[in-house]
Write a structure and sequence with these properties.
CATH superfamily: Histone deacetylase domain
Order of helices and strands: EEEHEHHHEHEHEEHEHEH
Bound molecules: zinc ion
Distance between the termini: 10 Å
Number of strands: 10
Oligomer: single chain
Radius of gyration: 19 Å
Helix content: 25-40%
Strand order of the largest sheet: 4-1-5-10-9-6-7-8
Shape: globular
Largest sheet: 8 strands, parallel
Structural class: alpha/beta
Length: about 350
């Protein structure tokens, strides 16, 4: 009988449930749905692999501000509270009130302020803190994202209290969110929040095995000598987020060598993936961290609707076993994974693969 994984979650994420997104100008379904978390929880429960700890305590703004700017945090709250009003203003200006449907999400206007010269930030900072339109904000978004961060924070504290492994069943995910930006379904960077909570123990490693590069986590810890960030992901020359994730991104002046990217081509199978993971685990061992945070994406599966890797359900048992064999205090933070019918089996395989 396997020891169940200590798991933190709550139901506030259900209040954040956009139904559509715009993909290069076309309306497509919103894959990042509440059913993802329900599928994982139910499968782990059915297999007796979960020790569930519902998390009610809400993380403080001061604690969030160790990872995100106060302006960004305030903007997320502002957009969430004002979303219905902002949308109505927009529709009224076009005379299109008849198109309002009652459960709208606000899709921020996107401007590439980080590469512009001479930009100024308006009072409400609109257009500054969200880098793409896959992160719409509605009235339920603020409670969902603060509680998602709270779940990760609670998981970090379980490790500080002596647990060897814990699982933060976070939703929305977080690894595309940087210090002052949201995007890619992500708002607050749950893994980075957990890593910052853990660093009172010493150096921390963050291993990102989501299919997509963890651009937000990379940006947060870019110049931080206390955190090693390693990401295994689809080649950014082919795949989102495109603008970063290459091997020559090795960290800032204060943290040279502490950012390691392992991009892999479309079609990557279990053999190539586990070979790369073994290298990443060697990097982590060499760094000798006090704890490990894993950004756990399940979108490397061959069936995932957003991805082009070829892992199978049983591959995840190998991944879980390899990571766990490091023997480090480890917090697993849920990131992506969009083949809802397989998510439960993947989680069972992953956590069941640990001794
Ligand atoms: Zn992903």
């Amino acid at each position: 009988m396997k020891k169940p994984i200590l798991t933190f979650d709550n139901h506030h994420h259900e209040a954040h449930a956009p139904t559509i997104e715009q993909l290069h100008g076309r309306t497509v379904p919103y894959f990042e749905s509440p059913s993802r978390i329900d599928a994982i929880r139910a499968a782990l429960q059915a297999d007796g692999l979960i020790d569930l700890q519902p998390t009610q305590a809400e993380i403080s703004v001061d604690e969030l501000a160790r990872t995100h700017t106060r302006a960004m945090i305030a903007h997320m709250r502002y957009l969430s509270e004002k979303a219905p009003e902002l949308i109505r203003q927009d529709f009224a200006s076009y005379g299109l009130e008849h198109l309002l449907m009652g459960d709208e999400y606000y899709y921020e206007q996107i401007f590439p302020t980080r590469v512009m010269r001479g930009y100024s930030i308006n009072e409400n900072r609109r257009g500054f803190h969200i880098f793409d339109n896959t992160s719409p904000v509605g009235p339920g978004t603020w409670p969902a994202i603060t509680h998602s961060a709270s779940v990760a924070y609670a998981g970090a504290h379980a490790l500080l209290d002596g647990e060897r492994r814990a699982y933060a069943l976070c939703r929305p995910p977080g690894h595309h969110a940087g210090r002052d930006f949201a995007g890619g379904y992500c708002f607050f960077n749950n893994a980075a929040i957990a890593a910052n909570a853990l660093r009172q123990r010493g150096k921390i490693a963050v291993l990102d095995i989501d299919y997509h590069h963890g651009n937000g986590t990379q940006a947060i810890f870019w110049d931080d000598p206390g955190v090693l960030f390693i990401s295994i992901h689809a080649d950014p020359g082919q795949e989102y987020p495109y603008y970063c994730g290459w091997p020559d991104e090795t960290g800032g002046v204060a943290a040279e060598g502490l950012n390691i990217n392992y991009p892999l081509p479309f079609g990557t199978d279990e053999a190539l993936y586990t070979q790369t993971l073994a290298r990443a685990l060697d990097d982590i061992s060499a760094y000798n961290p006090a704890a490990l945070v894993v950004s756990l994406g399940f979108d490397t599966l061959h069936d995932d609707p957003m991805a082009q890797f070829e892992l199978t359900i049983s591959s995840y048992a190998r991944l879980g076993g390899m990571i766990d064999a490091l023997g480090l205090p480890t917090l697993y933070v849920q990131e992506g994974g969009y083949h809802v019918d397989s998510l439960g089996a993947m989680a069972v395989s992953f956590f069941g693969g640990m001794d």
